[in-house]
DNA sequence: TTGTTATATTGCAATATTACGATGTTATCG
DNA sequence: CGATAACATCGTAATATTGCAATATAACAA
């Protein structure tokens, strides 16, 4: 155990969980907030922005890329990372679907 | 290590990460999907719906409650769990804020 | 070539998460 | 009262995550 049991759940459920999990770390939220703030999406100075060592940041970027939340292009010596809005939209749709039902019958 | 470093990040960043993390497991997504599907929000038969043992489900419910995503009221022998939409809305607002900027200058 | 800059990968220690059997707890039923 | 039903909690094994130093790689500059 320690392993997440994914067999009994639908593909959609598993994908949503995987995306949410990728966002479930302050460093990764901070990366996304920084990307949003940036004019360009080149983020070479992330190391100076976050209170984490360079390998740790690299690891978090990898996880976000793996989940499909950001995409990166090599641009000379640095790398250009940008948000992939299609995945964000998936999450947005899911969360929005929760607000429609107002069966507040007991709570 | 193994411990998440939260000191260097803003309160908002940490809270968002904490909420997303709570959603980062298929069982917890399934619980929320089930809550959405239900007419009433009494969810005593979650044990029959999910491919997990009762203590495991109880643990996941606790985590969702801890994050403030669901709230539970005792109702006789069973417990009534419902979504707390205010937290959902926080996430919704964050995700929506990512879609406004269209600085697709490189990717 | 040598050096520098930007990033990735490896390896590991510390800690967290997941899952579940066993066992509590609490309310209701007979 | 005792039995049952619906949870919660405890304890623990297996595995995952986090963070970083050390090291590798790759592109460019001098």
For the structure shown, list the relevant keywords.
homodimer, 107 residues, mainly alpha, Arc Repressor Mutant, subunit A, DNA-binding
Any overview of this molecule?
Two copies of one chain form a homodimer. Chain A is mainly alpha-helical. Chain A is 53% helix and 11% strand. Chain A has helices at residues 11-22, 26-37, 46-49, 54-66, 85-100, and strands at 70-75, 78-83. In chain A, strands 1-2 form a two-stranded antiparallel sheet. In chain A, strand 1 (70-75) and strand 2 (78-83) form a beta hairpin. The mean pLDDT of chain A is 87. Chains A and B meet through helix 1, helix 2, strand 1, strand 2 and helix 5 of A and helix 1, helix 2, strand 1, strand 2 and helix 5 of B. Chain A binds a DNA duplex (30 and 30 nucleotides) through residues 1-5, 25, 27, 44, 47, 52-62, 74, 76-79.
**Share in helix of chain A:** 40-55%
- Most extensive chain interface and residues per partner: A-B, 57 and 57 residues
Which strand order does the major sheet of chain A show?
1-2
Head-to-tail CA distance between termini of chain A: 34 Å
Principal-axes geometry of chain A comes out as globular
Give the helix/strand layout.
The structure is a homodimer of 107-residue chains.
Chain A lengths: L10 H12 L3 H12 L8 H4 L4 H13 L3 E6 L2 E6 L1 H16 L7
Antiparallel strand pairs in A: 1-2
Chain A binds a DNA duplex (30 and 30 nucleotides) through α4.
Quick structural overview:
The first copy, chain A, is built from 5 helices and 2 strands.
